[in-house]
Amino acid sequence: MKKALIIFFLIISVFAESGTQTASAQCAMCAISAEQGTKNGNTQGKGINSGVMYLMAIPYLLIGGLGLLWYKKFRTSKS
User: Fold this and answer.
1) Which of 41, 43, 56, 70 is most exposed by smallest CB count within 10 Å?
2) What is the pLDDT of residues 65-78, one digit of tens each?
3) Are 6 and 13 in contact (CB under 8 A)?
């Protein structure tokens, strides 16, 4: 029963996702200033890139830390 329920929710989530519309991630002014790059001392593009890298790194660090704790727990319990 649990297996069928999980499969049902997976199918519903796939079909619910296909009906969504795409949206712009930035307003028009932010997109224009990010596209201009570093012309005339504009550093907003670098700031956006740094923010993306920061937001991308956090989940990997958290998952890596949990994996390390899990590895150490099972390694010490068997010996």
Assistant:
1) 41
2) 999 999 988 887 55
3) no
